[in-house]
Amino acid sequence: MAYALQQLINGVALGMIYGLIAVGYTMVYGIIGMINFAHGDIFMVGAFVALITIVLLLSGGIMEGPGAIMLVLLVSMCVTALYGWTVERVAYRPLRGSFRLAPLISAIGMSIVLQNYVQVAQGARVKPLEPIVPGGFTVLTEGTFVVQVSWMQLVIVLVTLAVLAVFTWLVTRTALGRSMRACEQDRRMAQLLGINTDRVISITFVIGASLAAVAGMMYLLRYGVIDFYIGFLAGVKAFTAAVLGGIGSLPGAVLGGLLIGLIETFWSAYFSVAYKDVATFAILAIVLIFMPTGLLGRAEVEKV
Amino acid sequence: MFNRRVLLGATGAAALSAPSLVQAQSGPIRVASVGPMTGQYAAFGTQLRIGAEAAVADLNAAGGVMGRQLALEIGDDACDPRQAVSVANQLASRRVRFIAGHFCSGSSIPARDVYAEEGVLMMSPASTNPRFTEEGKWNTFRVCGRDDQQGQVAGTHIARQMGDQRVAILHDNSAYGRGLAEETKKAMNAAGKQEEIFAAYTPGERDYNAIVSRLQAANIQVLYIGGYHTESGLILRQARERGLNLTLIGGDALVTNEFWQIAGPAGEGTLMTFASDPRRRPTAAEVVARFRARNVDPEGYVLYTYAALQIWAAAMARTNADDPRRIAATLKSGGPWQSVLGPISFTDKGDPTEPDYVFYRWNNGAYAEIS
């Protein structure tokens, strides 16, 4: 019982990080119907910006308390958002109106560019960071087995839920959100009605990138080791999460991430660790057979 | 029309390749060191590169081999078997005569077949999987030991010294990691000790909490990992965060200071098997002093890579011919060869005749041999 509870905690914390990255995939897909394959690498850039900021603050001797962490988060979000905006501007906007696969290829190219850029600029070796937020609290003890939640796990879950709440509010209740939904439904019509669709799309990319930066920083603080390649694996998992939850749906992305984190963790906990990815993708395949639009996705209505 | 174009192309190719053939006979002899220069295990690639650069510089300063200078190329296989094959093909087509590499066993084994076909000799400073030299290829040598020997040392140590503790064995499913874990398990079981868990993990991930909780539930006290330093360091770090007090025992893939950077204070007391410290051998004193003067610590596989090039150069000079097959025969029959690692002779398979594995302990950011 205690063992299952501990694995549940592990799984939720892992799944929330996947979910946070998946939100970026799902928002971009919702608005322009393309998979932004560079999103995983934007996440990696976010982690690196956070690392550089932390190292600067540490050398200045002012890396203390929640204030410093908020500062790191802010810097990382701003810088990474700039990357997101630039990527859209350079790689996707010129191809808008081109055939459907063009931006997809461009996205894969952008992903390679970002990876190699960071590799050249920061070196190919792994970058370790000492634990910034150590410790945690004990939930319950059963025999010799202690169920623990680390502070970082708690922070990850709370931040993801807060971010989800803020952005759900943004999309459903604000003027910007209304423009985003309008673009999603019919971009040309939205343009005719006076919405600056280019600007809305840019803002979507900026939001997606800053969420990736949040995820990148959580990842850095939780695991403490990053390299230029982390975006690939995390990106694949998050993309899978977005598809499982129903691509285009915000709560779906977090739900999908959560499920994938839980499946991976529980499969590793009770069956063979080596086959956890097989389990994850088998479940994805089964879900997609019975629910082709994912768990919370809406069927696309073909306009005639 | 079609035929003429092919003919033209062929003539063009011949014209282009002819000068390079002539050049290859008289110009510098190309040698290469190949390892993970990028990616997760780049720390080891760096060790190979600085070892090879120093060896080539020293050999050239002493007049080269058979009166010809050496030109060093660096190959990057990122520890990926597929990339290893494509790098091997590239190097072979550039008429490289000798490879000091690769690093990962999983890369050395597929690359070996390419080199064997193309007539290239290779001597790995680090690939310890037995299969590397077991499968009857003429061109394979290594200056390090083998995992059946390494596993024997680790397995019997666990069974004898830690017989009353609960043991788990994990591996990363790579040729190196899995092979080493299986050899250790075999030796340990033969000495009468059973493990509680034998499982694989996925390399390249960051979250190993599921495995850590599993170790915790099974009350594991000793953890043996067949795998590289990044994952070993992370698993240990996450175990320590959860308050687990276990002793990690690893193989020779932990011999880099990067292990400590990743594991942090959790790495205290970690044991690993490696050959007795090459930096302390009297034959290495002069080379080590020169490295230290440049502020480089010749840790891990630096001196092994140096020795591989040194031994090959000596064998080529003695054979007095640029024929890899004859050099291979000389290497096997002509030992012992003097090197920074001390005298080394080779078996018919290409393994060193006297491998030695001892235990090291990590303490406060450095590792030292324990008696």
Features:
heterodimer; A: 304 residues; mainly alpha; 4 strands; B: 371 residues; alpha/beta; 7-stranded mixed sheet; 13 helices
Whole-number mean pLDDT of chain A:
89
Quote the average pLDDT of chain B. 88
Side-by-side strand order of the widest sheet of chain B: 7-6-8-9-10-11-12
What percentage of amino acids of chain A are in beta strands? Answer: 5-15%
Task: Report on the architecture of this protein.
The complex is a heterodimer of chains A (304) and B (371). Chain A is mainly alpha-helical and 304 residues long. Chain A has one domain. Chain A is 73% helix and 6% strand. Chain A has 11 helices and 4 strands. Chain A has helices at residues 2-32, 39-60, 65-92, 102-122, 151-173, 175-185, 187-192, 197-223, 230-245, 250-270, 276-290; strands at 127-128, 136-142, 145-150, 225-226. In chain A, the strands form 2 sheets. Chain A has a two-stranded antiparallel ribbon with strand order 1-4. In chain A, strands 2-3 form a two-stranded antiparallel sheet. In chain A, a hairpin with a 2-residue loop joins β2 and β3. In chain A, α1 packs antiparallel against α8, α2 crosses α8 (197-223) and α6 crosses α8. Chain B has 371 residues and is α/β, with parallel strands linked by helices. Chain B has 13 helices and 12 strands. In chain B, strands 7-6-8-9-10-11-12 form a 7-stranded mixed sheet. In chain B, α2 runs parallel beside α12 (302-319). Chains A and B meet through α1, β3, α8 and α10 of A and α2, α8, α9 and α10 of B.
